[in-house]
Amino acid sequence: MIELYKIELNTVGKNDIVDITGDVKAIIRRSQITDGSALIFVPGATGALSTVEYEPGLLRDLPRLMEKLIPEKEHYHHNETWHDGNGHSHLRATLMGPSLTVPFSGKEMILGTWQQIIFLEFDNKPHHRELVVQLMGERLD
What we know:
With 141 residues, the chain is α+β, with helices and mostly antiparallel strands. It is 28% helix and 38% strand.
């Protein structure tokens, strides 16, 4: 069985990190599927998904890491092409990836104790995002 859902959110841009764990949990709970996998996907080239312990220190550390790896003020050919100043955003999103799969059983996600699902907004401007959540599995009643 396959079911398709969306998570809508508005971001402020520039390394916004949004905890979407509760959204995914709510989708799984209202679904007819009890055991399976949740695939979460970002349609777009400047957003990404991952898991993290969603706490203030890491919420500051992750953007610092991205700035060290892919600095915003570096020269990017993308900026020459489109003149939108977000070449770094595309590279950061590429590094992190556009999708994440989380297994669930008995309508509960199988996550570590301190593990949350996050959406990362790397673009240099706010966005309205519609993440796709595809549940695949079976109903075990």
